[in-house]
């Protein structure tokens, strides 16, 4: 919970990780390159006082995570979105057992989402069912750019991927988070292509598809598919810290999202431990669209409340105190959700 | 081989040639972005090292820029052996071997590549035009121009104020083979087609999302390069599009990494 100027905000951090990138867990040079890339993101976009040492960045552990999110960071509830990256890390990048146990010990604070790779075929499907029986997760984080033997990526529309989504439907795993951000493969199509989400969102209308990183660096493609599908959402992981270094860019991202996908489908995320939620929450509550960007309407306090927590709380059935809840906006299921939030509305 | 009649190429000429190589996505020369790490010339033999903002920049873009660089330098007068290498990328070994062997994109990536990079280039040429068009029209809109208020589809090239945005748009139109006449409408797609009646606002809104994306990416990539390679900011040329007051904030002190 965060309170400022008499307004209280229920905070859901919809994308956190408990990773281990220490040298002893790095399988190869790519494991080092991967965490170095994250560290450069962190150094490049963080305020000076928020920059961690490289050693702190490699591994945090559960105790520090609890402190950074819940003691210092105003977060009411956080959702693990683990990336396996087993080709780069001996025991994987996201620490499954550790994160799952932490969530089990703190059920009101943490939700554990799982992951799968459809290239594991039939065995992977059995594994998904067995894991679900043990962990009872309702969401998965998918990383389509993950390497796997000779393959360096997959699509949601691949026949095996469709079988896994069918299994998700059977098991009640309704929240499908997909990483569409800094990525590696597939080579030939633009690697950030969101077209596969468009297809599966149409075929699986009973599942929610949350596009992490709001499709950056292909914001326009994401907005275009999201505006046509009632069950596509945008996660602000990696977009949030631009508030500090590039506030005008952040304002435009937000302006575009409010126009195309509306205030009920955007999720706040710190992408912990790339960044910590404390400063992001504080700055977002203070944030406003610059005046000279006349093409966008100002962002309201209620919109901030929805983005900071209420939207994700609704998807995950979290128990939000009654006095902090807000009704949904009266927006269409498809098409630009809030055309009044931008210029040219009457043109 | 260096022909006897020509003088060996200079470093300046090599850098000039590299200035014609674009990052297709950001629509800017790699020299302005700071992607050229070093140029060495030894009696006509040229070695160029390139660097990118992250180890995981898409390999197709990485290959494209490295390969274009090699072609641009090879085409110069007085050039002997040309070596172009991409440093610190997750596919450096593969890309550098492919460049050395002149294997081409498909030859370099073998089973992973299904087609050549022409489509990728075309996609980003189109996006560059889309963004330039939106910038030119948004200048009018923000200024409250009655022209734009009457419907952006009515604006002609001749209505645009002289300046950077208009020049940039004309260059992008030329690249796509579109008319540059004063009476040509500004709001058109990559084939010169105007939006369907009644859909001009949506057309421009989509173009705006493209512009926001490209400008944001360009500045983010620049910033990441500066963070990754200390001192590389000195090699970058400022980009006015999408610039912010914070752009020239001093860099955070770097803690040393183990190599």
UniProtKB/TrEMBL annotation, chain A:
Domain of life: Bacteria
Coiled-coil residue spans: none
GO MF annotations, alphabetized: hydrolase activity
Disordered: annotated segments: 327-347
Entry-linked InterPro entries: Amidohydro-rel, Metal_Hydrolase
Domain Amidohydrolase-related as annotated: residue spans: 12-318
Protein name: Amidohydrolase-related domain-containing protein
Organism expressing this protein natively: Phycicoccus duodecadis
UniProtKB/TrEMBL annotation, chain B:
Superkingdom of source: Bacteria
Ranges for region Disordered: 229-259
Pfam families the record matches: FeS_assembly_P (PF01883)
Domain MIP18 family-like: 11-85
InterPro entries associated with the record: FSCA_dom_sf (IPR034904), MIP18-like (IPR002744)
Signal sequence segment: none
SUPFAM superfamilies in alphabetical order: Fe-S cluster assembly (FSCA) domain-like
Any coiled-coil regions, as ranges: none
Bias kind Basic and acidic residues: ranges: 236-250
Name of the protein in question: Metal-sulfur cluster biosynthetic enzyme
Organism: Phycicoccus duodecadis
Source species taxonomy: Bacteria, Bacillati, Actinomycetota, Actinomycetes, Micrococcales
């Amino acid at each position: 919970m965060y309170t400022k100027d008499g307004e209280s905000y229920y905070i859901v951090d919809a994308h956190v990780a408990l990773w281990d990138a220490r040298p002893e867990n790095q399988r190869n040079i790519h494991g080092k390159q991967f965490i170095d890339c994250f560290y450069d993101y962190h150094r490049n976009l963080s305020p000076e006082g928020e920059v961690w040492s490289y050693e702190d960045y490699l591994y945090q552990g559960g105790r520090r995570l609890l402190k950074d999110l819940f003691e210092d960071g105003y977060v009411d509830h956080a959702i693990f979105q683990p990336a396996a990256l087993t080709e780069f890390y001996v025991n994987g990048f996201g620490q499954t057992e550790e994160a799952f146990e932490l969530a089990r010990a703190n059920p009101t604070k943490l939700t554990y989402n799982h992951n799968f790779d459809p290239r594991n075929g039939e065995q992977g499907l059995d594994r998904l069912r067995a894991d679900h029986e043990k962990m009872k997760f309702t969401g998965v984080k998918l990383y389509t750019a993950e390497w796997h033997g000779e393959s360096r990526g997959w699509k949601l529309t691949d026949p095996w991927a469709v079988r896994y989504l069918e299994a998700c439907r059977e098991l009640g795993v309704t929240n499908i988070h997909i990483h569409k951000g800094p990525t590696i493969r597939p080579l030939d199509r633009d690697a950030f292509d969101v077209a596969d989400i468009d297809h599966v969102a149409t075929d699986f209308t009973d599942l929610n598809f949350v596009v992490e990183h709001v499709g950056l660096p292909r914001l326009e493609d994401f907005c275009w598919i999201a505006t046509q599908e009632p069950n596509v959402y945008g996660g602000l992981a990696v977009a949030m810290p631009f508030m500090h270094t590039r506030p005008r860019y952040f304002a435009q991202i937000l302006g575009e999202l409010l126009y195309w996908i509306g205030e009920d489908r955007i999720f706040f995320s710190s992408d912990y431990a790339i960044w910590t939620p404390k400063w992001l929450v504080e700055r977002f509550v203070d944030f406003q669209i610059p005046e000279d960007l006349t093409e966008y309407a100002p962002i309201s306090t209620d919109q901030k409340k929805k983005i900071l927590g209420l939207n994700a709380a609704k998807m995950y059935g979290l128990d939000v105190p009654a006095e902090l809840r807000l009704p949904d906006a009266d927006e269409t299921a498809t098409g630009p959700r809030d055309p009044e939030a931008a210029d040219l509305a009457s043109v | 081989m260096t022909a006897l009649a020509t003088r060996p190429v200079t470093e300046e000429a090599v850098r000039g040639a590299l200035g014609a190589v674009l990052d297709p996505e950001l629509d800017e020369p790699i020299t302005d972005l700071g992607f050229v790490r070093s140029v060495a010339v030894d009696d006509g033999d040229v070695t160029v090292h390139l660097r990118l903002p992250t180890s995981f920049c898409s390999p197709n873009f990485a290959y494209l820029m490295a390969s274009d660089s090699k072609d641009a330098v090879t085409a110069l007068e007085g050039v002997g052996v040309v070596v172009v290498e991409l440093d610190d990328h997750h596919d450096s070994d593969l890309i550098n071997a492919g460049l050395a062997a002149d294997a081409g994109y498909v030859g370099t990536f073998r089973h992973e590549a299904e087609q050549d990079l022409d489509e990728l280039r075309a996609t980003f040429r189109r996006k560059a035009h889309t963004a330039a068009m939106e910038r030119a029209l948004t200048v009018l809109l923000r200024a409250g121009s009655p022209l734009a208020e009457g419907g952006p589809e009515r604006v002609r090239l001749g209505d645009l104020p002289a300046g950077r945005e208009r020049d940039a748009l004309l260059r992008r139109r030329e690249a796509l083979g579109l008319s540059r006449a004063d009476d040509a409408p500004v709001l058109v797609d990559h084939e010169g087609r105007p939006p369907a009646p009644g859909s001009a606002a949506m057309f421009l809104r989509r173009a705006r999302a493209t512009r926001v994306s490209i400008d944001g990416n360009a500045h983010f990539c620049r910033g990441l390069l500066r963070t990754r390679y200390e001192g590389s900011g000195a090699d970058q040329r400022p980009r006015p599009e999408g610039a912010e007051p914070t752009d020239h904030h001093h860099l955070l002190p770097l803690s040393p990494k183990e190599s």
